[in-house]
Target: SDR family NAD(P)-dependent oxidoreductase
Amino acid sequence: MSLPKKSPTKKSPQKDAPPKKLGHLAVVTGASSGLGAEFARRWAERGYDVALVARRKDRLEALAAELEESSGVHAFVVPDDLSDPEAPYRIVAAAEALGIPIRVLVNCAGFGTAGPFVHEDSRRIADEIIVNTLAPTILSRLLLPALLSAPGGVLLNVSSTASHQPLPGIAVYAATKSYLTSLTESLWQEQRGTGLTVLALCPGPTATGFFEAAGSDAFAVGSVATIDTVVRAAFASLDRPDSGPTLTVGFRNRVTGSLASLAPQRISLAIAARLTSGARG
Ligand SMILES: NC(=O)c1ccc[n+]([C@@H]2O[C@H](COP(=O)([O-])OP(=O)(O)OC[C@H]3O[C@@H](n4cnc5c(N)ncnc54)[C@H](OP(=O)(O)O)[C@@H]3O)[C@@H](O)[C@H]2O)c1
Model:
């Protein structure tokens, strides 16, 4: 697979404008759409060069051109399919070859499947497990030494409120996100005091391409947040000194998550099954 690199657009520096480029790299997966694209925009606004990862190369190239124009950073496209277990190794090799210190990893790529487990496509759920769990785990492991090499590194794993309880009807998706939240919380504790910020971001339903990719309304339970709300909340948490390991976005989502863990298991499972019933018919 080729790992094309986008040449930086030469821009004439504006007089008296503050220097934009820090010479630090943010690697963002899922950057072709939705939350990942917005995370890439915000890191670029903060002066980070960005490496944009997803399958749709045309979208990555369009975003790279936009970011170079708007933020004056270098934006590189790294098209790859994260359902290939080897993809994280290729992506890290490509990012390291850029020679820019890697300071940020945003694991945002992910997708959901829905419906009764017995009817789910076994190959699609295998891809879902790899993209949502194996890929962020290996990317985190491979890039952690770079993120730890100087204070101020960030590891942001985009999980979900679906990680807060088992969800019949979207069982595999919920299980993958439970894994990701659990992993990230452990890493938060392991890395305390190192200067690395680790965060499991748990948005509820958010207006992105996610529902279309999933082909189901089962995920759109309750109110749907905007991308801006979710990404702003994430950066507010990242900017707070000593923020916690997990951020659940939205008061109602936090209450629902707490109630799910307190309720008796049979009741909690029955309520969850009703909420995701759009996936069961
Ligand atoms: N939207 C929600 O309601 C919601 C709620 C909670 C959590 N989340 C999480 O937020 C994250 C971002 O999703 P989104 O809402 O922004 O949805 P989205 O607009 O569908 O974006 C998903 C991103 O993941 C990438 N991706 C999917 N499969 C991939 C693969 N095999 N290889 C490489 N990249 C792949 C897609 O890129 P390509 O298709 O170009 O490969 C796309 O950039 C996901 O982890 C999702 O689970 C979303």
Observations:
- Residues 30, 32-36, 54-56, 81-83, 108-111, 131, 158, 160, 203, 205-206, 208-210, 213, 219 surround NAP (CB under 6 Å).
